[in-house]
Automatic annotation (TrEMBL):
It comes from the Eukaryota. It comes from Caenorhabditis briggsae. This is Sodium/hydrogen exchanger. Gene3D superfamilies: 6.10.140.1330. Residues 19-413 form the Cation/H+ exchanger transmembrane domain. It is a multi-pass membrane protein. Pfam families: Na_H_Exchanger. InterPro entries: Cation/H_exchanger_CPA1, Cation/H_exchanger_TM, NaH_exchanger. One of its GO terms (cellular component) is membrane.
Length: 573
């Protein structure tokens, strides 16, 4: 009457069981304050995965591991989307220079330095398995980049300040692109004869980084606009909006993966761009639902990933080479430290907000490796004889980062008295004055003739408010910000003030003005020019109340003063 169909639900039911176990374990850990004070949640979840893996190892369910396809297509997108959607855009673009330098130059430096050092040591036959030049650089490319998943988990737990978090996480987010490009480049070289490679082969692979990164940005922006436009017309069917907010960015991730662009950059950029538009198109209750559901699926994915790492440790085939593992851990720390110190030294010459020595230490020490490195290493072709050693070393490196560095980073931050994140929202006054300072700095850059960061932001905000928001937001109307009349009226007020000063300092003014005249010009022409300009003034030039008051006061005396000046000698003017 009730057939037992365990084989049909075995895989999914098993996953559901250990996700439930991991969730219950997190609830238990929240009550064990003495444990969570020293151990990050990620390490505790890995321990649970190890225990569950040993239990499964004794049953017929042995063999469960972290599959690269499952990781990249199902587990990683929610975490990166959560990071992009809740990214503080102001801080991110303020530090875009350091983020790009760390992610591009830093990753290339780490890859070739680590790979070259391991290759040099292999010449002395100190490793138990030999490998070719491209094989070791494949391994170096996947351990050279920081992992955004590991950084989110650890750095959010220790509440590091926004400046450090943005730089470390922004680097991890974008160095994925170059890490994958380097990985694919060396993979493509495996089947080639080293003697047949020419300069164009290396140059084309190097240029592919910009294609992969910029392609991911472009796809992210396109799908962000598509999401915003779709939610604009969901006011009558409010329940559909949250579905579109999750579905369309995920389609952007899959599209970028399909055309070999950076899918991580695509979904992160999509979340960053669409946030300001979709929040204006949905209700407050829907916005809260999106926020909480994003956090739910993100943290669930993190649990699954670290549980999988624990399970994979037990089920995977390992090859231990203690010397190779120790050399890899040492070189990753050593060369990252050198790279961070040199890059911060260069950046501090041009930045207002300096990287202090404590900040540089955390940047170097916080370059954690995680599941992305594992997902790449298990994707190495089976023809690579050193693949089992690479897998074991990658797992050992991840455990070193999560357990040793993850456990010690909190005490080090407290010991070095590094500023942590303030758990408070900005007041309305702070928000207003931050905007005021941005506009003031943009004005200073404009006066100085510089086209800097603030000027660029001000131009984009004007374009955003006049063009993009009316297109992608439901209640936003197209407005033209025309300040010509205000500027023109201000110029006229300045000229009136100049005339007043010239009346009071006739002799000195005449001498100073004559020094600026060109051959063939005289003071009468100068007065005629300014006089005609001032006569154009109209009462409706200035709309603001404060300026209107000044205008009324000046207009009251302007006619009589100008007539009095006209009766004097033109040279005095």
């Amino acid at each position: 009457m009730f057939p037992f169909k365990w084989t049909e639900v075995q895989f999914v039911y098993t996953i559901a069981i250990w996700i439930l176990i991991a969730s219950l374990a997190r609830i238990l850990f929240s009550y064990l304050k003495f444990l969570t004070k020293w151990l990050p949640d990620s390490s505790l979840i890995i321990i649970v995965g190890l225990i569950l893996g040993f239990i499964l190892h004794l049953t017929s369910l042995n063999g469960v591991s972290l599959d690269a396809e499952v990781f990249f297509l199902y587990l990683l997108p929610p975490i990166i989307f959560d990071a992009g959607y809740f990214m503080p855009n102001r801080a991110f673009f303020k530090n875009i220079d350091s983020i790009l330098l760390f992610s591009v130059l830093g990753t290339v430096w780490n890859c070739f330095a680590i790979g070259g050092s391991l290759l040099l040591l292999s010449k002395y036959d100190i490793f138990s398995i030999q490998f070719s030049t491209f094989e070791i650089f494949i391994f170096a490319s996947l351990v050279s980049a920081s992992d955004p998943v590991a950084i989110i988990v650890v750095f959010e737990e220790i509440h590091v300040n926004e400046f450090l978090f943005i730089n470390v996480f922004g680097e991890a987010l974008f160095n994925d692109a170059i890490s994958v490009v380097l990985y694919n480049m060396f993979i493509s070289f495996l089947a080639r004869d080293l003697t047949t490679l020419n300069f164009w082969d290396y140059a084309s692979r190097g240029l592919s980084f910009f294609v992969v990164a910029l392609g991911g940005v472009a796809i992210g922006v396109v799908f962000a606009f598509a999401t915003s436009l779709a939610t604009k017309y969901t006011h009558g069917i409010k329940i559909v909006a949250p579905v579109l907010i999750f579905l369309i960015p995920y389609m952007g991730y899959l599209t970028a993966e399909m055309v070999s662009f950076s899918a991580i950059i695509a979904i992160a950029v999509c979340g960053m761009v669409m946030k300001q538009y979709v929040k204006g198109n949905i209700t407050n209750s829907a916005a809260n639902s999106v926020k909480y559901f994003t956090k739910i699926i993100s943290q669930t994915s993190e649990i699954v990933i670290y549980m999988f790492l624990g399970l994979s440790t037990v089920s995977a085939d390992h090859y231990f080479d203690v010397v190779f593992i120790a050399a890899t851990i040492f070189f990753t720390l050593f060369y990252r430290t050198i790279g961070v110190l040199s890059q911060c030294y260069f950046l501090n010459k041009f930045r207002a907000e300096q990287f202090k020595l404590q900040d540089q230490f955390i940047l170097a020490y916080g370059g954690l490796k995680g599941a992305i490195a594992y997902g790449l290493v298990v994707s190495i072709p089976a023809a690579v004889s050193a693949k089992p050693m690479f897998i074991t070393t990658t797992i050992a490196l991840i455990y070193f980062n999560v357990f040793i560095q993850g456990i010690t980073i909190r005490p080090l931050i407290n010991l070095m008295k590094i500023k942590t994140k303030e758990e408070k929202k900005a007041t309305m006054t702070e928000s207003v004055y931050n905007k005021y300072l941005d506009y003031m700095m943009a004005g200073i850059e404009d006066i100085a003739g510089q086209k800097g960061h603030y000027n660029l932001v001000a131009r984009f905000e004007r374009f955003n408010s006049s063009v993009l928001k009316p297109i992608f937001m439901r209640l936003q109307k197209r407005e033209k910000n025309d300040f010509t009349s205000v500027i023109r009226s201000y110029e006229k007020l300045i000229l009136e003030d100049a005339l007043e000063k010239m009346k009071s300092r006739q002799n000195s003014t005449e001498i100073s003005l004559r020094s600026f005249l060109q051959p063939g010009e005289d003071m009468e022409q100068l007065y005629t020019l300014f006089g005609e300009f001032l006569k154009e003034r109209r009462d409706d030039d200035i709309q603001d109340d404060y300026f209107a008051e000044v205008q009324a006061h000046e207009c009251e005396n302007f006619g009589s003063e100008l007539k009095e000046i006209e009766n004097k000698d033109a040279s005095i003017v």
